[in-house]
Amino acid sequence: MNASSGSSQTRNKTRLIFIFKTSFHSPRQSIPSRTFYTERQPTESSTKRLALQAKLGVRIQASLAAFIDRSACPVSCAAEQILAVFIQERHALSLRENMCGSNVFLRVLWLFLCRAIASCSPLTADRQANITSMLGQQADRVMALGEWEERWQQNKIGFHQPEVHKMLKNNIDKVLNGRTGVRFFFPLCGKAVDMKWLADMGHSVVGVEISEKAIRQFFEENNMTYTEEPVPAIPGAKVYKNSEKNISLYQCDLYNFSNSIEGQFGAIWDRGSLVAINPGDREKYAALIISLMAKDCRYLLDTLLYNPDLYQGPPFFVPDEQVHSLFGSSCDIELLQSEDALTDKQRNWGLDKFTENVHLITPKSN
């Protein structure tokens, strides 16, 4: 990042925090219409409510500042990101809407969101140019399928997690949305234990993976029997099935899979797929995923933010702007979580900032 973009980020951060303070903490000055705010004598309950609001305000401000500081990208003022911070901190304080000033509190928050977005709009062109530059660092990066298979053969699978991913656990209720017996799709599934976790809950799972070793290890390490059979529609492909848990894993190139094989799905969990495919294939990948989404599908997408000048990937850098570019024309996108995920592993890659975002993507109703 050059000096001018760094100074722009600093100015933008200062502006965003200032707007937060003036919009959230000073409703009389920030809201011109008295229909939003009525003068009344303070009572014990209203004083308590205002104290809770102030405490929540401090927590949101601190979390927002922390998010800005740890982000490898310039400040993002997307409404869903700010709202996600609000939701997380409100739940952290165990607050309910009726304890937060009802409509007054929510209208103040909404005004803050609108003003924050409007404030940052002049920087949109600068941010887009910076994102384009960052994406360009990895645009020509290519990994052949054989390289992934070789990693499995050599057990170089640091991307595999032996426990159910916390982002899936934290957001499973939003993915299920009250449904039972949901059909889940796992692109580039590896031997993710998340698949058995969902199957144990009564859901069915279909995965696609290039490595035969990964698929066999999944069943064997989970003490599950399986059958093996060819897939006539995909030359050279095989499908491995456990009928008891209703798990079917296809060994083939992901781009040879289609909705003509297994239909469409009610849910998709993409923990390490979009960030693993070659950056030049993202448009093709998004088209495939969208074609696999049923009308009620809820697609949970995990992405990573870091400085691609410092690490070539994989996993690759996928900014929120590209998520919207890939899926926004046909889907609604909500940022559910944004967390600092920097560990010694990423530090060994040469990174000092590493952010993990999880998005909920759903087909537009119209």
UniProtKB/TrEMBL annotation:
Q: Which InterPro entries match?
A: SAM-dependent_MTases_sf, Thiopurine_S-MeTrfase, TPMT
Under catalytic activity, the entry for this protein gives: S-adenosyl-L-methionine + a thiopurine = S-adenosyl-L-homocysteine + a thiopurine S-methylether
State the compartments where it is located.
Answer: Cytoplasm
Which keywords annotate this record? Cytoplasm, Methyltransferase, S-adenosyl-L-methionine, Transferase
Source organism (scientific name): Oreochromis aureus
**Could you identify this protein by its name?**
thiopurine S-methyltransferase
Q: Which domain of life is it from?
A: Eukaryota
Whether Cytoplasm counts among this entry's keywords is yes
- Family membership, please give it: Belongs to the class I-like SAM-binding methyltransferase superfamily. TPMT family.
| Recorded GO MF terms | thiopurine S-methyltransferase activity
GO biological process, any: methylation
GO CC terms for this protein? cytoplasm
Short name of one Pfam family: TPMT
Q: What does the record give as EC number?
A: 2.1.1.67
Query: Gene encoding this chain?
Result: LOC116318911
